[in-house]
Prior knowledge:
two-stranded antiparallel ribbon, single chain
Amino acid sequence: MDKAPTNEPYLSRAAASEYLRQLGLRVAPSTLAKLAVLGGGPPYVKFMARALYEQRDLDEWAASKISPKRRSTSVSEKEVFCCNHKTPSKS
């Protein structure tokens, strides 16, 4: 992860939560804080005691959490993965 400041403004946890909400993804600031402790959340940098997020990291993290499209709730994760990712044909 880059430690040098970018041209992109950093977002506080509250601003990161609001940004994700505007994308239709509800993630509370407290959830971002919990994920920072437990792992599995978006990458962040610390400025003094504050966690700060970059928009591109939030976009990448959110995209990694969204499942492939489904047509039924009865389809398993394995079936969704198999059907959406074709294996190369053997020639």
